[in-house]
Amino acid sequence: MDPIEALTEIAYLLERERSSAFKSKAFRRAADVIGSLQPERLADPARLKGTPGIGDTTYRVIREALDGQVPTYLAELREHAGVTPRASSLRSRLKGDLHAHSDWSDGTTSIESMADAARALGHDYLALTDHSPRLRVANGLSAERLEQQLDVVAGLSSDDFTLLSGIEVDILEDGALDQTPELLGRLGIVVASAHSKLRMEKRPMTRRLLGAVADPHTDVLGHVTGRLVEGSRGTRPPSEFDATAVFEACAERGVAVEINSRPERQDPPDELIAIALDAGCLFSIDSDAHAPGQLSLLDYGAERAERLGVPEDRIITTWPLDRLVDWTNRPR
Ligand SMILES: [Zn+2]
Ligand SMILES: [Zn+2]
């Protein structure tokens, strides 16, 4: 087995099961080290021991791969990876993803590797939506850094794949968005999400979300309740707001309600998806990936949407790119 492929697949599977970024990064780093070596260095694997960037575990993986085996570490991860949601036919009809992060904010890898992974997954498009300035813990992008990022993003599309520029912009306490309107207007996709003060009272929280939905730049309302149902960050109850009012505003303004695929979020909850369906909303099934291996978390969101009877035509991520772009340019 090719050692670079083995190391990369391990990183991918660790990311998908949301292990610590520290762990997956070690495997990505070892893959980079191997990739940069002269091929003859691999002829004598024992000499790789002690090479900077190659530790005991990664050395064992490389050694086993070079010996023609599937490394034990990889074999075990593959076994875990068998635990995935029931395959949904909807998943195969998703054409892209509108919510993903790179190491420009709190993702673990480069923009390039996110784009490569999305392409490898068969996506026609991916929106890169790093965080906005106020989210300092996530290294949110200042206006200057976002402008620089736009140049990088513009260079990464190909004939069969489009990397859309974007942002996951914080919804501030008063409902305003955390980036200049000028810059928001230049982006392909604007996902608006709340990340702080999620325990606000119902009325001000409703006003806050309505403010974000009314902003002419908002395309997608991200993980609307902010709840966490499992995982290393613990659990968090959903925010309280008038869901009917918020989703009716989304429907009226053509803003899509995100179905966030991350297993620890499963946001919105089932009963809120039902309200959004009644209100006539559009939906966007997104991964909210912070690493390449997490792009495939879409499986979970697709399974939920199918189970809850969300009609395919109201899921904008089943639309071809030209229809999606027309929608982002809708008059408002
Ligand atoms: Zn978020
Ligand atoms: Zn996000």
What does this entry look like structurally?
This protein starts with a helix and ends with a helix. The protein is built from twelve helices and eight strands. The model has no long low-confidence stretch (mean pLDDT 95). The chain has a five-stranded parallel β-sheet, with helices on one face. It has a three-stranded parallel β-sheet with strand order 1-2-3, covered by helices on one side. It is α/β, with parallel strands linked by helices and 332 residues long. Helix 1 (3-16) runs antiparallel to helix 2, helix 1 runs parallel beside helix 4 (72-81) and helix 9 crosses helix 10. Strand 5, helix 8 and strand 6 form a beta-alpha-beta unit. Helices cover 39% and strands 9% of the residues. Bound molecules: zinc ion (2 copies). The site of one zinc ion has 4 residues, from loops.
Ordered list of secondary-structure elements with their pairings:
Elements: H1 3-16, H2 21-36, H3 56-66, H4 72-81, E1 96-97, H5 111-120, E2 125-127, H6 143-154, E3 162-164, E4 166-170, H7 181-186, E5 189-193, H8 202-214, E6 220-221, H9 243-253, E7 256-260, H10 270-279, E8 282-286, H11 298-307, H12 321-328
Parallel strand pairs: 1-2, 2-3, 4-5, 5-6, 6-7, 7-8
Helix pairs in contact: 1-2, 1-3, 1-4, 8-9, 9-10
The structure holds zinc ion (2 copies).
